[in-house]
Amino acid sequence: MSTFQAPKGTYDLIPPRSAVFLAVRDTIATQVRNAGYGYVETPGFEDVNLFARGVGESTDIVTKEMYTLTTKGGDQLALRPEGTASVLRAALQANLHKQGNLPVKLWYSGSYYRYERAQAGRYRHFSQVGAEAIGAEDPALDAELIILADQAYRALGLRQYRILLNSLGDKECRPVYREALQTFLRGLDLDEETLRRAEINPLRVLDDKRVDVQKQLVDAPLLRDYLCDACKAYHEQVRELITAAGVVFEDDLKLVRGLDYYTRTTFEFVHDGLGSQSAVGGGGRYDGLSEMIGGPALPSVGWALGVDRTVLALEAEGVTLDLPAPTSVFAVALGEEARRVLFGKVTELRRAGIAADFSFGGKGLKGSMKDANRSGARLTLVAGERDLAEGVVQLKDMESGEQRAVALDEVLEAVRAQLA
Ligand code: AMP
């Protein structure tokens, strides 16, 4: 072991588990690409104020969890704790919203950083794949995103997840509710910090996980009873569209989520096999965010799905993805001449698009065959001096155990035929 370890709250993705991560990313990406979302990549750090303003000054993410730094040039930066603010910033900066075709639909995939209390499923560095539809207010867009996320989880073979859905209202109705909730919260027996939170961001108190707090919240006013007609109608349409698509969801009237920018549609995907860190993904509508970061009014909706937790969910359900073996053909060379010839064959196979690997390190037959087994390859090419003298290599099918001699210049064809 080296003197150094991965920093607290982080871990390394290593084979073979790392292949599952890639497959999860790919599966999610396939859904959004297939629905017209274009790939966007933004820097891993941004002006700290983008998040302070965008995510919200009073959120845990901004007050406690951001990795901030001052550069040698004096810039105040933060490692990105989430994707939406950056993606919207990038879209605004490139004037994508002025090119006449709204919504601008973007997807992304990358690393995010939060200085959280590390525990199972909750890391300081984690991966998300996200999708944002910027610049349109249309319940079908909210529905599209929920359906796509559901499809991604289904495609992965997950079953034990639930979709929680709520509406947070808009700038007409939410302030009225906010006041009613605040009045209610002031009458409760809460600790000082929670009371302070009730003054700055009362909706977040609903999200408090403590049992004694939840007990007191049983009779809290519900946003649903305060939604204006426009928000009600909008929410009803989202519910109808996803229901028609066969997506099962639960109305969760207390679902708020940890970021300030959400309006109207809010949703979370939770998995029942994950313990306390059960949210595998979440998102919603953020009609006011663009203006909060200095842009024009651009009603938008999006989600981010956590790759780490999705992998944990697969493991919790015992789902094994059907991943193709990374190597189809493994070459075992016995002797110098065979090394030269088979190394050439491996290159030829790779150039023809066939995944091939080679027994490196000058091992003997036994060690090399172990490598071949470990690689998961369907076929092995074995050659020693006698084979070469006859102008052949041995092609072995690792499943059936059958082996036959193949002429050197027919290796590619023979391999192709046998893999087909
Ligand atoms: P959020 O922006 O907090 O809604 O996060 C969206 C998704 O990212 C969550 O549902 C999680 O799957 C994942 N996520 C957020 N924070 C973490 C974390 N600290 N560790 C692992 N995954 C996380």
Secondary structure blueprint with pairings:
Elements (H helix, E strand, L loop, with lengths): L16 H17 L4 E2 L5 E3 H7 L5 H4 L4 E3 L5 E4 L4 H10 L10 E10 L11 E10 L4 H18 L4 E7 L6 H13 L5 H9 L1 H4 L5 H6 L12 H16 L5 E2 L11 E9 L7 E7 L3 H4 L7 E7 H11 L11 E5 L2 H16 L4 E3 L6 H11 L3 E5 L1 H5 L2 E6 L5 E5 L3 H9 L1
Parallel strand pairs: 1-5, 7-8, 12-13, 12-14
Antiparallel strand pairs: 2-4, 3-4, 5-6, 6-11, 7-9, 9-10, 10-11, 14-15, 15-16
This protein binds adenosine monophosphate.
What does this structure look like?
The protein has helices at 17-33, 48-54, 60-63, 84-93, 139-156, 174-186, 192-200, 202-205, 211-216, 229-244, 289-292, 307-317, 336-351, 365-375, 385-389, 411-419, and strands at 38-39, 45-47, 68-70, 76-79, 104-113, 125-134, 161-167, 250-251, 263-271, 279-285, 300-306, 329-333, 356-358, 379-383, 392-397, 403-407. 38% of the residues lie in helices and 21% in strands. Helix 1 runs antiparallel to helix 5 (139-156), helix 1 packs across helix 12 (307-317) and helix 5 (139-156) runs parallel beside helix 10 (229-244). It is built from 16 helices and 16 strands. The protein is α+β, with helices and mostly antiparallel strands and 420 residues long. The protein is elongated, with a radius of gyration of 27 Å. Bound molecules: adenosine monophosphate (AMP). Adenosine monophosphate binds next to strand 6, strand 10, strand 11 and helix 12.
